[in-house]
């Protein structure tokens, strides 16, 4: 009975363009393994952020003694949660000197792990084959693009603020910045195997999705982090934050998959099952 009902729903959906689009999206996301691959991306983001926080915390005393509190305030955390965040980070440049070259190598490897995971995800979505390791420079280039994009988003939130139409301008700026970030980063990690024109629809969807998610994060994330910090300390904050990273990773994967379907629809190939290479997880 359930199978018959589902069959009728599929047939009904296939009669309209939006229905066919949603059916193709559901099929491709099923092939991708949305939650599993999203969790992989989220974990790589998390393990990439921690070394960067260590270095940033080691340098903050010599650069700006108030950088930690300002960072916590920017996240919208209360005093108690900000104090827990402060205690979780190193207190001066001495730790950075102690890590030396080994720490720098670990930082680079950990940071590029996200770029490699992003490459595997984008290649699986677009069914492109892997390239030689001699093109490994693209991982660093993609990482630089992501870091620059994130810096611009944060700078926009700091500079563009106010009342009236200012929040609208800030939202539109974030849409553009997030879209450009994932547009360029995706193009780099797959070694320009897919054209910028083909990647544009997915980048636009990702930009809108991340900007909307940012609005929800400013309201929901601070109290969730504060509650987790009060109950479980730094570990609770880590679990909460990685859960939010999972949401963002899934948003990126859905946007990229939907963008590919938009491209296939425009070229009349949306209902042909792709047979290209499928990179391993």
TrEMBL record:
InterPro entries recorded: Virul_fac_BrkB
Chief site of localization: membrane
Transmembrane segments: 41-59, 98-118, 139-159, 171-190, 202-221, 241-263
The keyword Ribosomal protein is annotated on this UniProt entry: no
Location of the protein in the cell: Cell membrane
Short name of any one Pfam family annotated for the protein: Virul_fac_BrkB
Keywords, ordered alphabetically: Cell membrane, Membrane, Transmembrane, Transmembrane helix
Record keyword Cell membrane present: yes
Bilayer topology term: Multi-pass membrane protein
GO cellular component: plasma membrane
Domain of life per record: Bacteria
Protein's name in the database: YihY/virulence factor BrkB family protein
Organism: Microbacterium allomyrinae
Organism phylogeny: Bacteria, Bacillati, Actinomycetota, Actinomycetes, Micrococcales
